[in-house]
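Supplementary notes for students who missed Thursday's class. We covered one full example, reproduced here. Read the sequence, then the structure, then the short commentary at the end.
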Amino acid sequence: MTAADPVAAGGTSRLYLQAVQARLAVAATAQRLIDIAVDLTLIVAGCSLAVAVGGGLVERKRPFTMLRVSGTPVRTLDKVVLTEAMLPLVAATVIAAGVAYGMSALTVAKMAPAGTPAPGLGHVYYLTVGGGLLVALLVTLAALPLLGRLTGTENARFE
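Structure (token representation):
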């Protein structure tokens, strides 16, 4: 054995360590990119939700105004709008979490060596999704003052 022999010089273990470190770095980069994609998707969903809530309020200006004139408190209308906005969003989030887990489990089952344990969604995923839901709720809450202005009793006309 000579010094040029990688096994004698301990080169094989160093090369293996470098390969493992390179793979871990690639996995960490891929995870960061996936987290960024999820964050951007949640931002776009929040903006879309704000537009949908605003559009729904404008479309139903007259019925909401009539409800206000008949004595319905603004808080009740706020609850209706929040329920309409958040119920589908929460349902979509639960479905997305299920699909994400299904995709990860299927990927591990097909690509990982036999005996690899089923994956679990990490706390970062749940924090990201929960943060996205919170942002969506805040965006919806930011659109609610529009409801009070649109449905003011001074806007009610009986023609």
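Commentary. The chain has one domain: 33-152. The chain has a mean pLDDT of 78. If anything here is unclear, bring it to office hours.
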